[in-house]
Amino acid sequence: MALDHHQLFEKLLEQLQLTEPDQLAAFRSATLDKLTVHEKSKRWHFDLSMPDVLPYDIFLTFHHQLETTFKTIAQVAFSIRTTQPQLTDRALGDYWEWVVQNSGLTSPLVQELCHKQVPHLEDGRVIFMAENEVVKNFLVNQALGPIEQKYRQIGFPAFSIHTLVDESASQQKN
């Protein structure tokens, strides 16, 4: 008898030793839809589904356990597809630093800028306040695409970050 996708995910949780009640509750409806194994490069990619974005602390634990458990076998990565994701200020902010650090951006300027400011929700739009026009252009042209893509990869709904210049911060520097 073949295991269904949810049972496969439960097996994965057992292997990762994620058995705390709050962890199990967060993954109650999660499924392992696909595991792609690249034998030559020793890379595994897990395609997961769940109803909503994971609480950040549980996401971090899951990510850490996945990498640690399989590090002697393969380099692992995963994508999460959510069926009813809720975009909240808290989740957006909680994940911000991790997303920036894991979005493939290598410029020290991007890292510095993204640590000073966190995006927020305003009238259903994601807003990021830039210090000045130069910073805004840099973010729009180089950083925001990979950041938005990384959010989607970990289960957030698709959204665009709207960058505005923070006039008060800009004037204070003059």
Question: Can you offer a commentary on this structure?
Answer:
- With 174 residues, this protein is of the alpha/beta class.
- The protein has helices at residues 5-16, 21-26, 56-70, 89-101, 108-116, 133-153, 167-173; strands at residues 31-38, 43-50, 75-82, 120-122, 125-130, 161-165.
- The strands form two sheets. It has a three-stranded mixed sheet. It has a three-stranded mixed sheet with strand order 4-5-6.
- Helix 4 packs antiparallel against helix 5.
- It is globular and about 55 Å long.
- The termini are far apart.
- The model has no long low-confidence stretch (mean pLDDT 90).
Keyword list:
7 helices; globular; 174 residues; 22% strand; alpha/beta; three-stranded mixed β-sheet; 48% helix
What is the structure about, briefly put?
This protein is an alpha/beta fold and 174 residues long. Helices cover 48% and strands 22% of the residues.
Topology:
Blueprint: H1 5-16, H2 21-26, E1 31-38, E2 43-50, H3 56-70, E3 75-82, H4 89-101, H5 108-116, E4 120-122, E5 125-130, H6 133-153, E6 161-165, H7 167-173
Parallel strand pairs: 2-3, 5-6
Antiparallel strand pairs: 1-2, 4-5
